[in-house]
Each structure stands twice: as C-alpha cells, then as structure tokens.
Amino acid sequence: MKKEVLVFIFDGYADWESSYICSELNSPETDYIVKTLSLDKDPKISMGGFRIIPDYSVSDYPKNFDMLMLIGGYAWMEQKNNAIQPVVEYAVQHHIPVAAICNAANFMAENGYLDNIRHSGNTLEYMKAQSPHYKGDCNFVEKQAVCDSDIITANGTAALEFAREIMVYLNVKTEKKIDEWYKANKLGFYQK
Question: What is the structure's pLDDT at 100?
Fold first, then answer.
C-alpha cells in the first residue's frame, strides 16, 4: 500500500509550486501517492485554471498520512486558509513532515512553527510583514529551500528546490538520482 502525501489546495493555489514534486511522488516507482486536501470537498480552481475535486476535507482526512504539503497562493495573505491549522498541528505533534512554499511559509511563521528552526521564505522582510507574530527572524536562511526538524520551507521561486528537499527527506530516489533530476530540470539539455 502506497504512503499518502496530502497536498492542501484551495481556490487560487499556485499549482506550479507543487507540479515537480507531485509528479515525482506519483511515479509508479515510488512508495508514495499524492492526495488532495481542502477545507471542504467543493471543487477548487488553481491559479492556472485547473479544477480539482479534493480527495479529503479537514473534517475527514486520514490520520496516517506521511507528509503534509502547503502550497502558496494569495488566500494565505487574506487569512482564508486558517482552518488548516489543526491539521498542521496534528502533523507537527505526530512528527509528520510539513512542507510549505511561498505564502504558506508565512502561515507557518505566523503560527510559531518556524520560531526555533532554520527556515526560508520569500524574503525575511516579506515574512515579517505578512506574519506579525513571527519570532524566528534569527533563524531565517537566505536559501531557496531549507529542511529542519521535519519542516521544509521554500520561497515562491523555488519549486525545483522544494521538490528536491522533499525527495531527499522522503528518500524517494538515491541522492545521485535526485541530483541528476534536479540538474536536468534546472539547466535543461542546452545551457546556451
């Protein structure tokens, strides 16, 4: 039986931020399967216009998932996704990894999950502006993606680095294969 990675989706989620990692995790060669989670089971429309019917809602998600992935989008800035907080808390309390990219990292900062661990995000100034209760500025790292204490964070330009950190954390492939995958996607076939 494949292990489930729950990807939180909502109207206006930044679909490209999870595209690399979801396609890799859903590969037949992995032990993982991606399932979508939302606040309810109504269809959600991504920034790119993809209409998705969530697999689970916050009231019926399975408790034995293997990672929670929070994707960016403007709804985080508008406080429209705050009802996901009990699921995040469940994951953290049960040592289930949480991966947050772009504005979702601000949500993690606002709720204290990044105060005492190394983390990244769009910029420190932006994170502080979007997360008034954030106290982890001394742990902010100017890197595309960072993994520390079961939490992966990345900025909105780091879909590939986000995917790489998740693949390493979940041991999806050997580090050599992950490095080859990353270089192929980052640099392409031709570097001119």
Answer: 98
Q: Which of 70, 130, 123 is nearest to 100 (CA)?
A: 70
Residues 6 or more apart from 41 whose CB is under 8 A from it? 53, 54, 56, 57
Q: What's 84's DSSP letter?
A: G
One-letter amino acid at 4 equals: E
Does residue 125 contact residue 70 with C-beta atoms inside 8 Å? no
- Contact indicator for 15, 50 with CB cutoff of 8 Å: yes
Tell me the two tokens of residue 62. 């399975």
- Considering the candidates 22, 102, 138, 147, report the single residue annotated as catalytic: 102
List the domains of the chain with CATH numbers.
3-187 (3.40.50.880)
Whether 22 is catalytic: no
Full-model pTM:
0.96
| Helices of type H across 26-115 | 85-93, 103-110
Please name the helix (run of DSSP H) or strand (run of DSSP E) that holds residue 104, with its range, or none.
helix 103-110
Q: Is 137 helix (H, G, I), strand (E, B) or coil?
A: helix
- Alpha-carbon distance 190 to 124, whole Å? 34
Q: What average pLDDT is seen over the chain?
A: 97
